[in-house]
Design goal:
single chain, 35% strand, Rossmann fold, alpha/beta, S-adenosyl-L-methionine-dependent methyltransferases
């Protein structure tokens, strides 16, 4: 149930969460580029410290950013490297826990797609934000995108569908089931391949902390990003920018 095992199990199928992953790579790169141009003018160097299979890192590299990318999951990193090579993008990849990232200084440290709530306590999140701050140049920024937990029902068992695809002779559907237990929940992600008489189900599980964005802003300020704000309507999740 650890995040590394979750993403290692999910990495061959992760693109299927998106209706069109290639388009998501392009669109998210465009959207993040717009945010960086507005809030971190002149930014060129980016550390994507929870890159997964590369959705945001690839999108930003394709738009000319100098991207360094790390993740805790080795199999996901291996796929991200292959995706970068296939596109002819020069991204430097490394294995790292976001609580211990180092290097730089970078213009921007990015943790997108609800990666930070894999850390299950405020203390661990503060530790990660402190590491982000040490990697960020003076005048740079930390950019975090997260689920809007304050706007969600945070109890019981919940179902969310993601996408369905025709892959060869199989109909592939992707959905998640969230099981809440106090401030945290178990996420069960299912990839179901239905090829008539042959059916295969892939399941990956992990735990998240349903931490509200306002609390994350407080922790960003405590970690050394005093100008921390929330941006809505510019990305598929709320974006928190700490400068």
């Amino acid at each position: 149930m650890d995040p590394a095992g979750f993403y290692d199990a999910l990495s061959p199928h992760f693109h299927l969460i998106h209706p069109d992953w290639e388009r998501s790579v392009e669109l998210q790169g465009e959207q993040l580029d717009g945010i960086l141009r507005e809030f971190v003018p002149g930014a060129r160097t980016v550390l994507d410290c929870a890159c997964g299979i590369g959705t945001q890192a690839l999108g930003l590299a394709a738009r000319g950013y100098d991207v360094t990318a790390s993740d805790i999951a080795e199999t996901a990193l291996a796929r991200a490297r292959r995706e970068a090579e296939r596109r002819g993008l020069a991204v430097a990849f490394s294995l790292a826990d976001m609580r211990e990232v180092a290097g730089g200084p970078f213009d921007v440290v990015l943790a997108a797609d609800n990666a930070v709530p894999h850390l299950l306590t405020d203390a661990d999140i503060l530790r990660a934000f402190g590491a982000f701050r040490r990697c960020t140049r003076p005048g740079g920024a930390c950019v975090v995108t997260v689920r809007d937990y304050a706007a969600m029902e945070r109890s019981g068992v919940q179902l969310q569908a993601h996408a369905a695809h025709r892959v060869g002779d199989a109909l592939v559907s992707v959905y998640q089931v969230r099981e809440f237990d106090g401030p945290t929940y178990v996420l069960n992600l299912y990839v179901v391949e239905d090829a008539g008489e042959r059916r295969t189900v892939h399941v990956a599980r992990t735990r998240y902390y349903a931490v509200p964005a306002d609390r994350l802003l407080e922790l960003l300020r405590e970690a050394g990003f005093p100008d921390a704000r929330r941006i809505d309507g510019r990305f598929f999740q709320p974006v928190l920018v700490g400068r």
